[in-house]
Amino acid sequence: MPLNLNRVGMPNREPDVRNKDFIEVAEGYNDEMALEEASRCLNCKKPLCVGGCPVNIDIPRFINQVTKKDYDSAYYTLKEFSLLPAVCGRVCPQEHQCEGVCILNPKGAPIGIGRLERYVADKFRESGNEEVLKKEAPTGKKVAVLGGGPAGLACAYDLAKLGHDVTIYEALHTLGGVLMYGIPEFRLPKNIVNKEIENIEKLGVKIELNSVAGRVNTVEKLMKEDGFDAVFIGTGAGLPYFLNIPGENLNEVYSANEFLTRVNLMKAYKFPEYDTPVFVGEKVAVVGAGNVAMDAARTAKRLGAKEVYIVYRRSKDEVPARLEELEHAEEEGVILQLLTSPVEVIGDDCGHVTALRCVKYELGEPDEGGRRKPVEVPNSEFDIPMDMVVMAIGQGPNPLLLETTKGLELNKRGNIVADDEGRTSIDGVFAGGDIVTGAATVILAMGAGKKTAQSIHEYLMKK
Amino acid sequence: MYKIVKKEMLNPSIVLMDVYAPDIAKTCKAGQFIVLRIDEIGERIPLTIADFFPEEGLVRIVTQAVGYTSRKLMNMNEGDSFLDFIGPLGKESEVENFGTVLCICGGLGIAPMFPIARELKKAGNKVITVIGARSKDLLIWEDVLREVSDEVYVTTDDGSYGRKGLVTDVSKEILEREKIDHAWAIGPVIMMKFSALLTKEYNVPTIVSMNPIMVDGTGMCGACRLEVDGKTVFACVDGPEFDGHQVNWDLSMRRMNIYKAKEEIALEKAIKGGF
Question: What's the rounded Cα separation, in Å, for the pair A426 and A407?
Answer without folding.
Answer: 7
